[in-house]
Design a protein that fits this description.
The chain is of the alpha+beta class. It has a single domain (3-170), classed as Aminopeptidase (3-Layer(aba) Sandwich). The protein contains six helices and seven strands; from the N terminus they run βαααβββαβαββα. The chain has a four-stranded antiparallel sheet with strand order 1-2-3-4, sandwiched between helices. A three-stranded antiparallel sheet has the order 5-7-6. The longest helix is centred in the first third of the chain and has 18 residues, at 12-29. The two termini are 21 Å apart.
């Protein structure tokens, strides 16, 4: 089972290495579905940007014989309005890891927007499984019809979630 954690407090040298790893993963595993703009935003991403409200980078790690390996990641900038990128290595697809990353991002940010080309069935399923709702259709940056997904957690959902976590920790 992958461990999902927030990537925010890395030293500068570690950050540069991590960003390079994520860029390689996005280019090699994105299946030509990641837009140039999304790749550009990832390429110039700084730790300071991740400290801004509504910005978060979550990575899913798996323990292997060689140590921890990044199985996938989810980047949201400005609550997903500026960027919402989900990448999962092909080896780990079909295990709903993308949906788990998006759900974790929604829980962390409390609201999230994601744009998905209408012909990208895997990403559409991922958004629906994560609890996002399609709100509108537009033309995306590549000229394709694109669905805009949104999700928002209410205070009641946050309180219930925290209560559930407390109950789990009591046993």
């Amino acid at each position: 089972m992958p461990q999902i954690s927030d990537v925010q407090h890395l030293p500068a040298r570690s950050w540069l290495l991590r960003r390079r790893q994520l860029l390689f993963l996005a280019r090699s595993s994105g299946g030509m579905r990641i837009t140039r703009n999304a790749l550009r935003q990832l390429a110039v991403l700084t730790p300071e940007q991740l400290k801004l409200p509504g910005s978060s980078l979550l990575c899913a790690y798996l323990r292997t014989e060689q140590g921890l390996r990044i199985a996938g990641f989810c980047l949201a900038l400005n609550y997903g309005e500026d960027a919402c990128i989900v990448i999962v290595r092909p080896l780990y697809r079909g295990r709903r890891l993308g949906a788990r990353l998006l759900s974790a991002q929604l829980k962390q940010l409390r609201r999230l927007t994601c744009s998905v080309a209408a012909d990208n069935m895997a990403s559409l399923k991922t958004c629906f499984r994560a609890g996002l709702v399609a709100h509108e259709m537009t033309t995306g940056p590549t000229g394709k019809p694109t669905l805009i997904f949104r999700g928002e957690l209410s205070e009641d959902e946050q309180t219930a979630e925290e209560g559930g976590m407390l109950c789990q920790n009591l046993s």
